[in-house]
Amino acid sequence: MSAAGTASRGIRILSKAGPFLICLALWQAITMLGITDPAFLPGLGAIWAAFRDLAGETTLWVDLATSLITAALGLLFGILIGVPLGAAMALSPRADGFFGPIIKATYSLPKSALVPLFVLWFGVGGLTNILATVLTTLLPIVIYTYHGVHGVPRLFLWSAAAFGTPRWKTLTRIILPAALPAIFTGIRIALGFAFIVTIAAEMIVSNHGIGKLMFFFGDSGSYNYMFAAVITIVVAAYLADRAFVIFTDHILRWQEPAERHA
């Protein structure tokens, strides 16, 4: 690689990492200048020391694995339910007439508010957290799938019908591939929601998970350990999002880059 190419690549990396570096610099400056009480906003050095302490034990990694599994299962079931439901609503006026009002009525409902109700039905544990995550991820997937399928150009469908293409082939070879960009957009939004609700549910009712760990350290006043746990799940969520973007780019490589990231 030429020197110009290396410099250009370095500039791109710095431009992406710049906002994070600025935030970290401001954080450290605030703590060093004594603008806030270090007990409530620890410096980066104290947080790093707390992370190294936690990383040497299995508790952090077990709780992180618990949170990741809960978020992944909630997202998976949200996809398995949401994609067929959204497609059915787009293709069937009856399905849209039945499920549409339910989706609209529950879209603005905070799903974390249902956690206490799930506790009464299913008890404290992973099932309650998974169900709350499923309900949260379901709605964006349904809505984006609906608009993706509904937005397939009618010319494609007319052409398939003119050639006598069976309906199931029209669905699997024309409608779903054309709707994939919208479906993946809904899944990516749902991925972020999965992490948010998983952590919130763990903080409310759970014996394990990063959310429970954050609540424990915050309640005991160990804010450097709490921030270490927060940063751990933030990094995990960011890496999950980046991995999904790479996966999406690979699946949709037949699209123009401008259309893929629209």
3D architecture notes:
The structure is a single chain. It is built from eleven helices and no strands. 82% of the residues lie in helices and 0% in strands. The chain is mainly α. The longest helix is centred in the C-terminal third of the chain and has 38 residues. It has two domains: 36 residues; 219 residues, MetI-like fold, CATH 1.10.3720. 30% of the residues are buried. The mean pLDDT is 81.
SSE layout and pairing:
Elements: H1 3-32, H2 44-55, H3 58-91, H4 93-106, H5 115-122, H6 126-150, H7 154-162, H8 167-204, H9 210-220, H10 223-251, H11 257-260
Helix pairs in contact: 2-10, 3-4, 3-6, 3-8, 3-9, 5-6, 6-8, 7-8, 8-9, 8-10, 9-10
Brief overview:
The chain is 82% helix and 0% strand.
User: How far from one another are the termini?
Assistant: 31 Å
- What pattern of helices and strands is seen along the backbone? HHHHHHHHHHH
| Strand residue content | under 5%
What count of helical segments does DSSP give?
Answer: 11
Radius of gyration: 23 Å
Number of domains: 2
CATH homologous superfamily heading of the largest domain: MetI-like
* Helix share, percent: over 70%
CATH architecture group name of the largest domain: Orthogonal Bundle
By CATH reckoning, the class of the largest domain would read Mainly Alpha
Could you list the spans in which at least 5 consecutive residues all have pLDDT below 50?
none
CATH topology of the largest domain, by name, is MetI-like fold
Sum up the overall morphology in one term.
globular
Number of strands: 0
